[in-house]
């Protein structure tokens, strides 16, 4: 195939790939984009070094996500560039799957849907990092591609496997998938019969359980199945219960996404003509996902990645009745104008070439610790915890894998922590483990109120036994060293 024909046949895909790369490239060189991504990096390194997820370090997310990071880190050790480039591939492939879905279902504006997803999942807040939502969306879309194919056992099984992988990257998608299965059963029952509907859904459920079963095998062999069940299933349920927001408080936070979902769903049903199947699938996924937003009372920016593809399919593929012809040259101009965060970051990268050490705060911390020959000592990163990875170290305890874990004592029991309160755990870290160095972005612990017992204890202990050796109030860097007795 000639280069000219290749470009002609795949011009849309090439445009989507280079658009994704353009938007996300300047963030390849950041030390820290989001605390969750930094935690995934640490969990991945632990697996690459031979540990099971949750056994050595601990986080609240499902395990398949960590294995992807582990593979990248095994092949490309300590490379932010490799991790962030993999994020480009995941977002790009998700956009390609959206193109495929629009072709399978006859929806309009496939290119606009795919391009909008690239923009929305890459442009704002912490989305330039590699987030669990990016992986989950990819697998859910992959499952839909199989579901929309000719109905047979192989396609139903592959659909279920992809859905299972989506759940093992983002557990709250289980609600969306459950809603989808209910719709699929009803639809199969109406078009075929009850027995066939049961068989179809049973195949989907078997497929969903396959990756769950496979990923539990190492725990069974190690005699640690309880750790798997506690960490993957019970801890997230405990986390949801612990939030304990009132229904009014939940509505205050989530009313707008509920209203948007209801409006988009209503309009898509009204304007849908021959695409009812995909419309109901999208509505089911949106309903299940938005319900999890409501039940937790939280809608973070990166949570919305889970609903973008399905809102876009309904909005541009069904509700907007006109096919919008868009030339690639015009699309490139629009992308450039909308990519203001990326353009700002390109400027920072250029400045960083002149002074790479101080380009980002974690690099600054690591540089200072190496300069003072403290990089091999026990370090407690209360913030900038990806610094552990840069220094070839691990967090001091499971409770410090993610900085927020320390403030969630109700989860301690799920990873065999002997402490019952955050204050007990903090005292264990400070008095038993006795870190030589403490790093924070403030003069306290950010996940606790200033007047909390934990922060009062922390500040008193640091004032008594530590000396501040570095302070940068502009970037928010505080480094203390324990005074030698």
Name a few traits of the molecule.
485 residues, mainly alpha, four-stranded mixed sheet, 19 helices, globular
Give the SSE layout.
Blueprint (H helix, E strand, L loop, with lengths): L2 H22 L10 H14 L14 H13 L4 H26 L4 H11 L11 H16 L5 H15 L5 H19 L2 H28 L3 H19 L3 H25 L4 H21 L11 H12 L8 H11 L1 H15 L6 H11 L7 E3 L5 H4 L31 H12 L3 E4 L12 H13 E7 L4 E6 L3
Parallel strand pairs: 1-2
Antiparallel strand pairs: 2-4, 3-4
Helix pairs in contact: 1-4, 1-5, 2-3, 4-5, 4-6, 5-13, 6-7, 7-9, 8-9, 8-12, 9-10, 11-12, 11-13, 12-13, 18-19
Low-confidence stretches: none
Number of domains: 2
Number of strands: 4
Secondary-structure element order, as H and E? Answer: HHHHHHHHHHHHHHHHEHHEHEE
Q: What strand order characterises the main sheet? A: 1-2-4-3
Structural class: mainly alpha
Radius of gyration: 24 Å
The percent of residues in helical segments reads 55-70%
């Amino acid at each position: 195939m000639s280069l000219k024909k290749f470009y002609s046949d795949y011009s849309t895909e090439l445009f989507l790939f280079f658009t994704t790369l353009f938007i996300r490239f300047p963030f390849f060189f950041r030390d820290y984009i989001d605390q969750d991504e930094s935690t995934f990096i640490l969990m991945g390194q632990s697996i690459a070094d031979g540990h099971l997820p949750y056994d050595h370090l601990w986080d609240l997310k499902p395990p398949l996500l960590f294995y992807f990071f582990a593979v990248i880190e095994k092949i490309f050790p300590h490379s932010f560039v490799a991790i962030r480039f993999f994020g480009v591939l995941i977002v790009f492939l998700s956009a390609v799957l959206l193109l495929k879905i629009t072709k399978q279902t006859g929806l309009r504006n496939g290119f606009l849907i795919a391009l909008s997803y690239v923009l929305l999942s890459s442009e704002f807040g912490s989305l330039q990092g590699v987030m669990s939502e990016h992986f989950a969306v990819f697998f859910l879309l992959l499952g839909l591609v199989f579901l929309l194919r000719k109905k047979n056992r192989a396609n139903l099984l592959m659909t279920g496997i992809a859905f299972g992988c989506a759940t093992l990257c983002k557990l709250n998608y289980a609600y969306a998938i459950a809603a989808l299965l209910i719709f699929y059963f009803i639809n199969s029952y109406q078009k075929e019969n009850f027995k066939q509907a049961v068989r179809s859904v049973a195949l989907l459920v078997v497929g969903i359980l396959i990756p769950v079963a496979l990923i539990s095998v190492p725990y069974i062999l190690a005699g640690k199945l309880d750790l798997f069940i506690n960490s993957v299933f019970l801890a997230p349920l405990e986390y949801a219960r612990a939030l304990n927001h009132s229904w009014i408080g939940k509505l205050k936070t989530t009313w707008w996404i509920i209203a948007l979902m209801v409006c988009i769903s209503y309009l898509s049903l009204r304007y849908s003509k021959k695409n009812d199947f995909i419309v109901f699938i999208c509505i089911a996924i949106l309903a299940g996902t938005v319900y999890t937003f409501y039940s937790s009372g939280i809608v973070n920016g990166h949570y919305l990645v889970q609903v973008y593809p399905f809102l876009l399919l309904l909005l541009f593929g069904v509700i907007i009745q006109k096919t919008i012809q868009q030339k690639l040259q015009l699309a490139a101009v629009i992308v450039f104008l909308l990519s203001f965060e990326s353009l700002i970051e390109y400027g920072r990268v250029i400045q960083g070439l002149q002074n790479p050490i101080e380009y980002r705060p974690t690099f600054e911390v690591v540089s200072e610790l190496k300069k003072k020959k403290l990089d091999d000592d026990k370090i407690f990163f209360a913030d900038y915890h990806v610094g552990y990875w840069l220094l070839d170290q691990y967090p001091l305890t499971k409770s410090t894998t993610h900085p927020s874990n320390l403030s969630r004592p109700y989860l301690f029991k799920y990873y065999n922590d002997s402490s019952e309160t955050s204050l007990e755990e903090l005292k264990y870290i400070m008095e038993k483990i006795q870190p030589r160095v403490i790093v924070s972005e403030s003069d306290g612990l950010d996940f606790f109120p200033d007047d909390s017992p934990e922060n009062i204890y922390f500040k008193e202990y640091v004032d008594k036994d530590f000396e501040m050796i570095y302070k940068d109030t502009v970037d928010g860097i505080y480094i203390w060293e324990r005074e030698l007795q």
